[in-house]
UniProtKB/TrEMBL annotation:
Sequence ranges assigned to domain Plastocyanin-like in this UniProt record: 31-93, 107-255, 355-487
InterPro entries according to UniProt: Cu-oxidase-like_N (IPR011707), Cu-oxidase_2nd (IPR001117), Cu-oxidase_C (IPR011706), Cu-oxidase_fam (IPR045087), Cu_oxidase_CS (IPR033138), Cu_oxidase_Cu_BS (IPR002355), Cupredoxin (IPR008972), CuRO_2_LCC (IPR034285)
GO cellular component: a single term: apoplast
Cofactor list: Cu cation
Free-text cofactor note: Binds 4 Cu cations per monomer.
Family that this chain belongs to: Belongs to the multicopper oxidase family.
Role of this protein: Lignin degradation and detoxification of lignin-derived products.
Signal peptide: 1-24
GO process terms (BP): lignin catabolic process
Domain of life: Eukaryota
Residues annotated as transmembrane: none
Reaction(s) the record says it catalyses: 4 hydroquinone + O2 = 4 benzosemiquinone + 2 H2O
UniProt protein name: Laccase
Length: 504
């Protein structure tokens, strides 16, 4: 293997071993890690492995090649990632500076979501009734909701700073079902990285971050000494959603008296789509000589996937129907053995590789009721040749209500070459794609009643999950997987499974 074991890795909250090469012992999915040829260590249950049973152990062994930045890890079965998650910070190669002045220090901020009840009971109850699950009881910043919450009267997380110093905040959205706004009273933030890829720096008062995404910002303590509130509040434009909870932390200048007042900031309205659009439209790849944006220009597979919610009949459900979610009208059914095993050992009958590259029916994707209410089900994959290039347009559908879908692809980074509202129009919209410096990431929001176009190169053989990172939508079936065949050259094939891979 020509992988370079040079990266210093710091895994927070997980046990980690540092032998001669970088090998980490972590449980569950490493969100966004591009581990070439070792899909066995990716982690999603029944996609790349069967779950680790109580008392069992499995060592995730993978090499990090060329990546650096903020990523994270989380449990990848049922709703367990609500509490089982943590940040992964990959530092640059020793001696390689950031493409911006070195911050005085760095802080990880993990945004989360908390239910007072058992999350498994919450989703099981919803699946039984066919209705949407209860929303969470609190949002959290580093595990604490802060004072404005029904859960606690405690003060919340404190972020200490010194006047005139600059800090890098590594923000992770680990919430299950909420996109979030993030703000600090009185301070501007400079965005420098998303999903472990540098961006052209830009200033903003509000960061918009979907579940699955990470964002690094620089914060300069340039205000008068004092306490400033730090907030994370929901961004939701689904009309049915009811969630107004704000998590609060405090930015605390040293030399500030504990008694002094806190400067507050109001959360944006939860449906402030213009703030979200301004933010995402400002994201650009750095695209410098050192960090070029390698956007695929020649496309082998041009795909159009509709993503959305629908309803299927259900006799035992409250309304005689249940909410389902689908991609191209296929609601994904989890297999009984891991897809990667079935692929590697040629076990038939586990999946088919006939996932439709286009929606099966032509209809107005947004704003109207669909012609076909019944969604099909299946364990269908889309097959890609090694190193082939893909353009994928993700079109939100309005079957029940249009909603933002943060779509996450395992195993790859992709370039977000275009986005818009309404129906994607190939003749008109394609000419406007940004093929020069589009942002590169692993999770992208498909806007409500709109579309997003991404491009990637299938240079990682194996089976790679793609799903909405709103956990409730994943549960309802908004997921599929790509199977990427081996290449013919050296170092282009999936390695054999590790001997301790959990048995199904
Ligand atoms: Cu972070 Cu498949 O998810």
């Amino acid at each position: 293997m020509e992988m370079v074991p040079w990266i210093r890795v710091l895994i927070l909250l997980v046990a980690c071993l540092f032998p001669a090469s970088v090998e980490c012992m972590v449980r569950h999915y490493k969100h966004g890690i591009r581990q070439l040829r070792t899909g066995w260590a990716d982690g999603p249950a029944y996609i790349t492995q069967c779950p680790i049973q109580p008392g069992q152990q499995f060592i995730y062994n993978y090499t990090i090649t060329g990546q650096r930045g903020t990523l994270w890890w989380h449990a990848h079965i049922l709703w367990l990632r609500a509490t089982v998650h943590g940040a992964i910070v990959i530092l640059p190669k020793h001696g390689v500076p950031y493409p911006f002045p070195k911050p005085h220090s760095e802080k990880v901020l993990v945004l989360g979501e908390w239910w007072k009840s058992d999350v498994e009971a919450v989703i099981n109850e919803a699946l039984k009734s066919g209705l949407a699950p209860n929303v969470s009881d609190a949002h959290t910043i580093n595990g604490q909701p802060g004072p404005v919450s029904s859960c606690t009267s405690q003060g919340g997380f404190t972020l200490p700073v010194e006047t005139s110093k600059t800090y890098m905040l590594r923000i992770v959205n680990a919430a299950l079902n909420e996109e979030l706004f993030f703000k600090i009273a009185g301070h501007q933030l400079v965005v420098v990285e998303v999903d472990a890829v540098y961006t052209k720096p830009f200033k903003t008062h509000t960061v918009v971050i979907a579940p699955g995404q990470t964002t690094n910002v620089l914060l300069t303590a340039d205000r008068k000494a004092g306490k400033y509130s730090v907030i994370a509040s929901p961004f939701m434009d689904a009309p049915i959603a009811v969630d107004n909870k704000t998590a609060t932390a405090t930015l605390h200048y040293s030399k500030t008296l504990t008694s002094s007042r806190t400067f507050l900031t109001a959360p944006p309205p939860k449906n402030a789509t213009s703030i979200a659009t301004n933010f995402t439209n400002s994201l650009r790849s750095l695209n410098s000589i050192k960090y070029p944006a390698r956007v695929p220009l020649k496309i082998d597979h041009s795909l159009l996937f509709t993503v959305g919610l629908g309803v299927n009949p259900c006799k035992t459900c409250v309304n005689g129907s249940r909410v389902v979610a689908d991609i191209n009208n296929v609601s994904f059914v989890m297999p009984k053995i891991a897809l990667l095993q079935a692929h590697f050992f040629n076990i038939s009958g586990v999946f088919t590789d006939d996932f439709p590259g286009r929606p099966p029916v032509k209809f107005n994707y947004t704003g109207t009721q669909p012609i076909n209410l019944a969604t099909t089900t299946g364990t269908r994959l889309y097959r890609l040749a090694y190193n082939s290039t893909v353009q994928l347009v993700l079109q939100d559908t309005g079957l029940i209500t249009p909603e933002n879908h943060p779509i996450h692809l395992h195993g790859f980074n992709f370039f977000v070459v275009g986005t818009g509202l309404g129906n994607f129009n190939p003749n008109k919209d394609q000419n406007k794609f940004n093929l020069v410096d589009p942002v590169e990431r692993n999770t992208v929001g498909v806007p409500s009643g709109g579309w997003t176009a991404i491009r990637f190169r299938a240079d990682n053989p194996g089976v790679w999950f793609m799903h909405c990172h709103l956990e409730v939508h994943t549960t309802w079936g908004l997921k599929m997987a790509f199977v990427v065949d081996n290449g013919k050259g050296p170092n282009q094939s999936l390695l054999p499974p590790p001997t301790d891979l959990p048995k199904c």
